[in-house]
């Protein structure tokens, strides 16, 4: 059982009570020897460790960032999405906690078994719909009267967002989310047994002036095959650098060597004002920033790399590399 940590003020109060006789040290020892009992509710069986919950939280924090970018682009307005909480509870308790009429997106995640539920508060869902249809993003809760056009628009909006969910899980497993149906009444939805443990990820969502929650319900049966991968040990193992394959390095080196770069021989440079530039005329002389005796610089992709001198090769202009360029240093022969 976890030990209780006392603050400094609590420690001072305890010592004061012992010194004044208000509290007896022998009584404290007796209490310490008594059996401590903690109530355990078998209906709320905790099947995920804190470590695994933290891993799920990291995955969905990434998903929240991706979803923010996606909805911002689709709705062309300010969108903020962040993870509010990650809890495990019975499926029945989750169903009771959401509105009686809401937007429920049910999707499968092959190769994992089972289905995941993405519940969107009507305030958020209708703000999205209003923005897609060209409105200001106002919210009107009339979920029970969704038209076919509204249902189709919402379905497409959430179906396209599942690519972000696939990307968020990419470090653990390669899933292929598929939206199966859109429902509005949670009472008609029976994904798992009422006492089945589910993980509920709640996302704080703001779209313009509308705000609400997006809840992701993941049954234990979906996560069961990959539970070992949700541990810190697995994450740390994946961060270990892999040994380089010599053949891959050789192929990469060969490809890089074939890359085309822009090479320029810089005779010199000069700064002119706009007024001086406009007054330039035939036979005018522009003074460069280096002496005629100084070597030129060879610039590769806008970065100086070598000192060079001009010349000819087979009746063509050419340059000869003298030395490697040292930034800020004068050239020494």
Description:
Keywords: Bacterial flagellum, Cell membrane, Cell projection, Chemotaxis, Cilium, Flagellar rotation, Flagellum, Membrane. One of its GO terms (cellular component) is plasma membrane. This protein is an alpha+beta fold and 333 residues long. The chain has two domains: 194 residues, 3-Layer(aba) Sandwich (Chemotaxis protein chec); 60 residues, no CATH class. 20% of the residues are buried. A six-stranded antiparallel beta sheet has the order 1-5-6-3-2-4. A four-stranded antiparallel beta sheet has the order 7-8-9-10, with no helix packed on it. It is built from ten helices and ten strands.
Overview features:
single chain, 333 residues, alpha+beta, Chemotaxis protein chec, 2 domains, 6-stranded antiparallel sheet, 4-stranded antiparallel sheet, elongated
The CATH superfamily of the largest domain appears as CheC-like
Would you tell me the structural class of the helices and strands? alpha+beta
Count of folded domains:
2
Q: Report strand order across the widest sheet.
A: 1-5-6-3-2-4
N-to-C span? 76 Å
Rounded to an integer in angstroms, the radius of gyration calculated over CA atoms is: 34 Å
* Mean pLDDT value: 82
CATH architecture of the largest domain: 3-Layer(aba) Sandwich
- Give the DSSP E fraction (strand runs of 2 or more residues): 15-25%
Number of beta-strand segments? 10
The total count of helices amounts to 10
| Helix content estimate | 25-40%
CATH topology of the largest domain: Chemotaxis protein chec
What is the ordering of alpha helices and beta strands?
HHHEHEEHHEEEHHHEHEEE
Shape type: elongated
């Amino acid at each position: 059982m976890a030990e209780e940590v006392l603050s400094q003020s609590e420690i001072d109060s305890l010592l004061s009570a012992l010194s004044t006789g208000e509290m007896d040290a022998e009584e404290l020892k007796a209490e310490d020897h008594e059996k401590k009992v903690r109530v355990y509710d078998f209906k709320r069986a905790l099947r995920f460790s804190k470590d695994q919950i933290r891993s799920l939280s990291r995955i969905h924090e990434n998903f929240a960032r991706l979803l923010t970018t996606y909805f911002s682009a689709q709705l062309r307005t300010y969108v903020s999405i962040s993870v509010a909480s990650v809890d495990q509870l019975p499926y029945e308790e989750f169903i009771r906690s959401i509105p009686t009429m809401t937007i429920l997106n049910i999707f499968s995640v092959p190769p994992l078994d089972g289905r995941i539920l993405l519940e969107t508060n009507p305030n958020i869902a209708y703000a999205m719909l209003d923005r897609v249809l060209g409105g200001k993003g106002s919210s009107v809760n009339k979920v029970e009267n969704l038209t076919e056009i509204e249902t189709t628009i919402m379905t497409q909006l959430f179906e396209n967002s599942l690519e972000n969910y696939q990307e968020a899980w990419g470090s653990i497993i390669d899933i292929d989310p598929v939206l199966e149906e859109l429902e509005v009444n949670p009472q008609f939805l029976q994904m798992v047994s009422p006492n089945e443990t589910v993980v509920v990820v709640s996302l704080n969502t703001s779209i313009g002036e509308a705000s609400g929650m997006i809840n992701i319900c993941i049954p234990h049966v979906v996560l069961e095959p990959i539970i070992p991968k949700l541990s810190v040990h697995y994450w740390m193992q994946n961060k270990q650098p892999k040994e380089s394959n010599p053949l891959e390095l050789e192929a990469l080196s060969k490809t890089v060597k074939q890359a085309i770069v822009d090479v320029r021989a810089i005779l010199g440079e000069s700064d002119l004002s706009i007024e001086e530039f406009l007054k330039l005329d035939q036979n005018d002389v522009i003074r460069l920033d280096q002496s005629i005796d100084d070597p030129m610089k060879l610039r590769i992709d806008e970065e100086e790399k070598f000192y060079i001198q001009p010349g000819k090769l087979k009746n063509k202009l050419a340059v000869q590399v003298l030395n490697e360029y040292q930034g800020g240093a004068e050239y020494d022969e």
